[in-house]
Each structure stands twice: as C-alpha cells, then as structure tokens.
Amino acid sequence: MSLDKESLLRAYRQMKTIREFEDRANAEIMNGQIPGFTHLYAGQEANAVGVCEHLSGRDSIVSTHRGHGHCIARGADVIGMMKELFGCADGLCKGKGGSMHVADLDKGILGANGIVAGGPPISVGAALASKIRGSGEVAVSFSGDGSVNQGTCFEAMNLAVVLKVPAVFVIENNYYSEHTSISYAVGTDDLKARTEAFGFPVFVADGSDFFAVYEAAGKAVEHARSGNGPAGVFCEMGRYYGHFVGDPQGYRAPGEVKALRQDSCCLKNFRASMEEMGDLNSAELDAIDDEVMALIEESVVAAKSAPRPTPADVATDVYVNYQA
C-alpha cells in the first residue's frame, strides 16, 4: 500500500510519540511521581499506529491494560493523557481512570481496561450498533496473546461471525501473558489458526514493521467495513519493558530485551525504509523527534503543576443519568 508524504510523517510522529511517552512515563513512575500500577507499550508502536491509521470518523477502539499506545494512535490528547497518569483533575478522565482506564469517547476510544480479553465483547457491541445504524463504522479491539485463552475472546469472535458485524480483532503477541511464556501457556504454536477457526480471515504482520502492519490492517478493516463481517490482525512483537513498571523480568532470557531493542525496533526499521525509498530524509524525521520530545516535556510539566481531584469529586461521574 502506498502512502503519501503527509501520511508517512504522521505515522512516524505517532510511533515516536508513543515511544517517548512510555519511556518518560517509566522514568516518572520509577522516581515516584506517577501513582498506581502501569504497563508500558514500548516496542509495539507499529501495531497500534498501523491499525489506527486506517480509522477515521466514528470508528472505535477498545484497548487493554497496556493501552497508552492504542489511545495515542487513535488521537488522544497527549497532555491530557499524561495528566491522567499523574491523577490530575483535568486529565482525560479527570484523574479517576489512571493508566489502565484511559478513555475518550469523542475520539472513539471506548476505554482501556485491566481485564484480559475484556475488550473484544465491547467491540462486538459497538460493531453491532454500527451495523444497526448502517453508518459504516468499524470497531477494533486490541488484545494480547493471553486473551486467546479466555472464553470472552472466543465468545466475542463467534458472536461477531454469527451477527456478521464490522469488528476487527487485533491480537498482539508479545510472547508473554504477564510473566508466562506463550510456549508454556498455549497448546498450539499457531494462534492464527485458532482465530481463523471461527470463520473469518486473519492477516499476519511483523509487529516491528509499520508497513507490514499497515498492509495487514488495511485488508482487515476493508473486509469489515465492506459488510463482510469480522476480520483479524495478528501481530508479533515483543515488549521492551516488563509486564508492569518495576517487573524484574526474571522470566526472560539474558540479552532478550537488548536484542529486541537493537534488532526489532519499528522506529529504526521505518527510518531504514525511508532511507532506502527516499520518501523522507533524516532531517525531516529528526525534526519530528525534537517536536515530540518538546511535547512530552510539556505534558510532564503541565501534569506536575495541574490540580488534583478533591474529596468533593469522589461521587461525580460515577453514574450516567440517561433520563437527563
């Protein structure tokens, strides 16, 4: 699939923003500035961006506990997200969601959640609503390799086929379900076959290659948007950090993470592709790097000086009054 220069610059910017957001979040958590339990997405940026670059309008996504990258790729405000991680009253969810519960309904981000395979059923509901309205939107769920051992994921896939709804199931295999290797936890090496068995096409991509993910996701989104029912995208790419910030990662082989960072980096691969094809030059990409670093610094400064929720806010935004 060909991309114009503006699209290429946007894709690189999104991936770079996710990487620097996660690296800075890690630093701020480790120095005690950000509270709570946090799971980082660094290394998997091409998955989120490669998929979300095909989404527009009222298309929706449902994320996971490792959801910062998905939300940024879908257009969440970076400063608002950083404020949310810091627990600020003017964060995206008013400081009440934190890292694992970022949402922005105006951007089609139906929410991150801490439940493994909690997203696919929600996305099927959103896809069913789109089909009933006849409005042409697709609903995308991101979930990890651990999700394909959960009944909710398989039930959602089956229901999507039965109802023929425009759902796209993105399975991100980062090789570990929390701390457990996929080689131990899953009874087959072919996760693609497990999902295809429900009766929809699944497109596979190298998660370190933005262009591979973009191509696979384009086929899946087009299939779903054209009224053919659900489709899947299966991406493989290890995460750079542990299951959570502070995870000692004793379950990973010596040198594993170093090798991933050195040999399987979507940003390095993107730059190499641009150098080979000549579509973008290093100066243009370096300029984006500088702009992204400035944005991340701005977001942290803003978050550290922003007000926190007060005790009086504890009962607000708990229930929605549908009769209002």
Topology (elements, then pairings):
Elements: H1 5-30, H2 45-52, E1 60-62, H3 68-73, H4 78-86, H5 119-133, E2 139-144, H6 151-163, E3 167-173, E4 176-177, E5 180-181, H7 182-185, H8 191-196, E6 202-206, H9 210-225, E7 231-236, H10 256-263, H11 266-277, H12 282-305
Parallel strand pairs: 1-2, 2-3, 3-7, 6-7
Antiparallel strand pairs: 4-5
Helix pairs in contact: 1-2, 1-12, 2-9, 4-12, 5-6
Describe the structure.
Helix content is 45%, strand content 10%. The strands form 2 sheets. The chain has a 5-stranded parallel sheet with strand order 1-2-3-7-6, with helices on both faces. It contains 12 helices and 7 strands. By secondary structure, the protein is α/β, with parallel strands linked by helices.
CATH superfamily: Thiamin diphosphate (ThDP)-binding fold, Pyr/PP domains
Overall pLDDT level: 94
Sheet of most strands: 5 strands, parallel
- Assign the CATH architecture: 3-Layer(aba) Sandwich
Short descriptors:
324 residues, Rossmann fold, 12 helices, two-stranded antiparallel sheet, alpha/beta
Explain briefly what this protein structure is.
Helix content is 45%, strand content 10%. It has 324 residues and is α/β, with parallel strands linked by helices. Helix 9 links the parallel strand 6 and strand 7 (231-236).
